[in-house]
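Module 6 notes. Inverse folding takes a fixed backbone as the condition and produces residue identities as the prediction. Think of it as a translation problem where the source language is geometry and the target language is the twenty amino acids. Below is one complete input and output pair. Work through it position by position during the lab.
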């Protein structure tokens, strides 16, 4: 059966997460920055919303240059908060996992997926599936993404790039050649600047030019394996499978407190849902955890942690709750400052013994 492969990529991810948090940003240029701390403005733009991109700002640009380009445009300059984007990313991946047959996250804001089986290879149904995934992410996270669907990873990735921002592009198998041929060979997944320069020198500009080559012509310039890849990729017949991501080694939840406090009980009360979340993940995956960690981000933005190790490992909700509270009591003693954000992490996983079914572990306590 022809495979049905998708690629999903969130639009201007870090900046969009900031917009969701503060919708007044939407109409302004937004740049999310990594400050190096040397001078006030030294560092680079991590990403920019499309308003800022309209003025020529892009990822990797020095902050000072971005500021010049946005002079008089009332830009919002925001410090990158990686932990926050990780948490959103984790929720997105969890949502996606439930929607597809196989999910392979390939970055904080993107993943390949395979839906061949669930939609029975029907590209019309693939279109509906992708549209419902877009709708789900918008409903749950208020975030837009771009999705590409095709018969291989290479096609799906090209299609999602083409659909950006906010679009959906389905390339049916019999439309693959027409879709790919006119695109620049440099857009092909795995073709970096060096390969692109060699191809250009050979007179190969488009993916169509590449697909028409005889293997021997490519092998004069590249290794056998890479040549074979280039040919199959350019024909949209690369067979690279969607591989389900490696098992996580930890889960965490971090929240921003409604008001800064050093009271461990108040911190834990607000973190209650976060504790439920990590506990639920342990049950869902049938894991116990050796280490519970309390994370406190203080009002001077420094991060403090305290951990406790369990032997045997645990996944008991009360134990996790009580331990988290205990750890926050210790943390608050050493920190001497208010917490602004607090979190809980479980790590050091072991498989639950005798796991027979999920329902066994989620039945209410008697
Ligand atoms: P898009 O997908 O073109 O709408 O925009 P983004 O911002 O989602 O770009 P993408 O998918 O390449 O990267 C995802 C996130 O990774 C992005 O929101 C911020 C971060 N990022 C991307 N490029 C850079 C970079 O050059 N430097 C740093 N520090 N972070 C980057
Ligand atoms: Ca993106
Ligand atoms: Ca991306």
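Target side of the pair, the amino acids:
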């Amino acid at each position: 059966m022809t495979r049905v492969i998708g690629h999903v990529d969130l639009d201007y991810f870090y900046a969009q997460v900031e917009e969701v948090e503060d919708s007044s940003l939407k109409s302004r240029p937004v740049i999310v920055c990594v400050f190096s701390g040397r001078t006030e403005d030294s560092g680079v733009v991590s990403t920019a919303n499309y308003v800022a991109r309209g003025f020529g700002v892009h990822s990797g640009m020095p902050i000072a240059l971005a500021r010049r380009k946005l002079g008089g445009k009332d830009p919002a300059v925001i410090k990158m908060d990686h932990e926050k984007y990780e948490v959103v990313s984790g929720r997105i991946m969890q949502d996606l996992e439930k929607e597809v047959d196989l999910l392979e996250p390939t970055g904080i804001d993107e993943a390949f997926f395979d839906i061949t089986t669930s939609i029975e290879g029907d590209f019309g149904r693939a279109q509906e599936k992708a549209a419902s995934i877009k709708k789900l992410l918008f409903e749950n996270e208020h975030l837009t993404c771009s999705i590409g669907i095709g018969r291989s990873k290479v096609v799906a990735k090209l299609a999602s790039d083409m659909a950006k921002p906010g679009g959906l592009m389905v390339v049916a198998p019999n439309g693959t050649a027409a879709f790919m041929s006119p695109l620049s060979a440099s857009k092909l997944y795995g073709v970096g600047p060096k390969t692109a320069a060699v191809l250009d020198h050979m007179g190969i500009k488009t993916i169509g030019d590449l697909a028409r080559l005889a293997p021997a012509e490519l092998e004069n310039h590249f290794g056998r394996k890479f040549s074979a890849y280039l040919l199959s990729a350019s024909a949209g017949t690369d067979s690279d499978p969607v591989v389900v991501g490696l098992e996580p080694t930890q889960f965490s939840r971090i929240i921003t407190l409604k008001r800064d406090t050093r009271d461990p009980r108040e911190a834990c009360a607000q973190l209650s849902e976060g504790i439920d979340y990590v506990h639920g993940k342990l049950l869902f995956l049938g894991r116990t955890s050796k280490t519970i960690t309390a994370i406190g981000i203080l009002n001077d933005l420094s991060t403090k942690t305290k951990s406790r190790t369990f032997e045997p490992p645990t996944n008991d909700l009360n134990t996790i709750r009580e331990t988290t509270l205990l750890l926050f009591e210790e943390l608050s003693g050493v920190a001497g400052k208010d917490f602004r954000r607090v979190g809980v992490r479980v790590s050091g996983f072991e498989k639950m013994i005798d796991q027979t079914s999920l329902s066994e572990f989620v039945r209410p306590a008697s």
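Reference fact for the lab report: Residues 123-141 form the longest helix (19 residues).
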